[in-house]
Description:
Elements: E1 8-10, H1 16-20, H2 37-42, E2 45-50, H3 63-79, E3 85-87, H4 91-100, E4 103-107
Parallel strand pairs: 1-2, 2-4, 3-4
Amino acid sequence: MAYQQFPIVDAHCDALLDVLHGRRRLGERSQQGQADFVRLKEAGVQLQFFAVFLEGPYRQAGALRRALLGIELFHREVESNRHLVKLIKSRRDLEELDRDRRLGVLLT
């Protein structure tokens, strides 16, 4: 990750919650929320961690189902925006960010 002297890494983002509620897509610039792939890329962020957050009603019944839905939606967003983002699954993926200049994304 050397294409900026000091890479910008954000280790927490709840934007997936808006996707779960059907309010927006991560690949589209939005006035809602604080982060989407477009604005993160424009801001020079190199690595963004996205959290699967479970709201109160889902913490007991339906927690697994809701978490799996969040994971599925995250992967759909990444797949449909491969020109903007790269899913980081290994050290090699991280090193390749220098070459292709996409936003690296991880799921937490």
